[in-house]
Amino acid sequence: MITLENVSKTYKVACREKGLWGAFKSLFNRKYKTIEALKNVTFTIKQGEIVGYIGPNGAGKSTTIKIMTGIISPTSGNCQIDGFNPFKDRQKYVREIGAVFGQRSNLAWDVPVIDSYELLRDIYKIPQSEYEKNLKTLSEKLDLNELLNLPLRQLSLGQRMRCEIAGALLHSPKILFLDEPTIGLDSISKLKVREFIKEMNRGTNLTVILTTHDMNDIDALTNRIILIGKGQKLYDGSFDAIKQQYSKSVLVKVQMAKPYENVQIKGYETISVEGNEVTLKNLPETTFSYVKLVQELEKNYEIVDISTKALELEEIIYSLYKEYEL
Ligand code: ADP
Ligand code: MG
Question: Whose CA is nearest to atom 27 of ligand 1?
Fold first, then answer.
């Protein structure tokens, strides 16, 4: 249903020189540099899937979403979604999709939410009966009744996000794109949004692509992640597999009898040395063993205590980024 083939995107940006004289010179002699935001990205997504599109800041997530929603065109490569070329067929294609950008609002700031919805109804030419039916379902599921007559600017971030998501679904799209939908939300709103997305996906077979920094979003919603870094696709597959691989990682805190400057243990990576406390992590090929570690430590160091801790979700992703040198 969604196919990206060798999609690349380069941005051309004007280099500014420093200071007034630099700005003046730049007026006559513009220098440009190119940023390769995406490099040969290829993937397919089937109807009804939920996919988590993850990667550190600047990886190219928003650029990919903008290409898939037809806001920008790729510099090279091919993007086909549901038989459309999103950029070229934009007019027809927008009816197929809904998009929510956490950083930018689709709804008007100063007018009641319901007025923005009515505008969307007119733009998308949604039949009145379908509009009313969708509005009713969405406001029930997202708990919007109290909010619809208030201007957007009076709403909290979580309330606003719920209104944005409903607005993106009024025209019954097949695909929903969410770019950082839970960023800055309180935990109750996060749970509500997650629950709602899951329900829509089950109920209407809505295809959902979401970018997020919150691994709990992924954990709650899907098992398929696409990892992108520096514009390139690095991993496409099961999130559980990643978690399993890293759940073998153990953080070990060692209390030394005195401070050591350089701590090196075979089979372990030294994460930090702070005073008498040293934090180690077993290398991927090392299975953690308490006894073996103590033996290894006692060869060169005087130790007082050892405690261990399995990696948390965020730490797993951090390790993943580190492994891919992101
Ligand atoms: P992400 O959403 O993963 O944080 P983006 O897709 O926003 O990443 O950005 C990828 C890269 O492209 C970054 O280096 C960013 O600075 C650059 N970039 C994004 N949009 C533009 C633009 N309109 N003009 C120039 N550079 C851009
Ligand atoms: Mg982004």
Answer: 11
